[in-house]
Amino acid sequence: MKRSISASRRRGDRIGYALLAPSLFGVVIFLLTPIVVVTWLSFQKWDLVAPLKFVGLSNWLAVLGDPTFIDSLMTTVLFVVLVIPAQTALGLFAAVLLSRRLPGSGVFRVIYVIPWVSAPLALGIVWRWIFQPTGGMLNVLLGSHVPWLTLPSLALPAVSIVSIWSQTGYVTLFFMAGLAVIPEQLVEAARIDGAGSTRIFWSIKLPLLRPTLFFVLVTTVISAFQVFDTIYSLTQGGPQNATDIIAYRIYEKAFTGFDLGQAAVTALILFLILVAITVGQQLYFRRRITYDLS
């Protein structure tokens, strides 16, 4: 009897491993292998042409001792701080409005999503024209000649506006999905008890949106730290490094400076920062998330 149970358990284990094999293959090939290769490359000197040369910690010391890297890191953090709160608040506000199913809501749902599904480089070219000092749509409307993308103090806010505009639709979609699964009987019970729309939102809907908020913040923070297309199409890190976001810096190191070793170090530092932020978000939301809506 015990032998039969043991054989059945082993057969079940083999089936389980077989079912996990495709996903495990993907994780190893597309996630773990690149991390190992980039880590190995961070200890090499390579310009894509000459043979690789082991240099130990030289690349790490060079990157960490480079003041422009620290400036780039701070610029990236400032960009994230400008973008994340604004696009989260706008996405939540739009989701609440669209969830009321007012006339024309279907059209606005499509309009909100269009920037998110459009090619970032194409959007960057359009916004580059909008921000043109002479003949640009924004300055024509304002009746001014403000150099939005060439003035260091305005370049990062301008790029942030484009990023907020393009990602708000993504945030709106997930908040709408979160609002849709909130039990209607909870809202009705609150109304019967005399709660108004504002009280219902802050006391019932927003707490029940925490799982959605957690997912949205994790994915949008990672996306903001890795933004590249918008910077490349609008400012290419300028003016005077005012938009030198770390993801664009990795590209510059690798394919303009042809220093793959330092580019790998920068990419690993970005990876470690994102892991730390994600773990921090997980710890913060762990005791604040409720999934049982029954």
Which word captures the global form?
flat
Uncertain runs: none
Percentage of β-strand residues: under 5%
Mean pLDDT, nearest integer? Answer: 89
What is the percent of helical residues?
Answer: over 70%
Number of strands: 2
The number of helical runs is 13
Along the chain, the helix and strand elements come as: HEEHHHHHHHHHHHH
| Rg over CA atoms | 24 Å
Strand order in the sheet with the most strands? 1-2
Span between termini: 42 Å
Secondary-structure content class: mainly alpha
Major β-sheet, in short? 2 strands, antiparallel
Descriptive key words:
single chain; 294 residues; mainly alpha; two-stranded antiparallel ribbon; 13 helices
Give a verbal description of the structure:
With 294 residues, the chain is an all-alpha fold. Helix content is 74%, strand content 1%. It contains 13 helices and 2 strands, in the order H-E-E-H-H-H-H-H-H-H-H-H-H-H-H. The two termini are 42 Å apart.
Write the layout of secondary structure elements.
Layout (H helix, E strand, L loop, with lengths): L1 H40 L2 E2 L7 E2 L3 H7 L2 H33 L5 H13 L2 H11 L6 H6 L9 H29 L3 H9 L4 H12 L1 H16 L3 H6 L11 H10 L4 H27 L8
Antiparallel strand pairs: 1-2
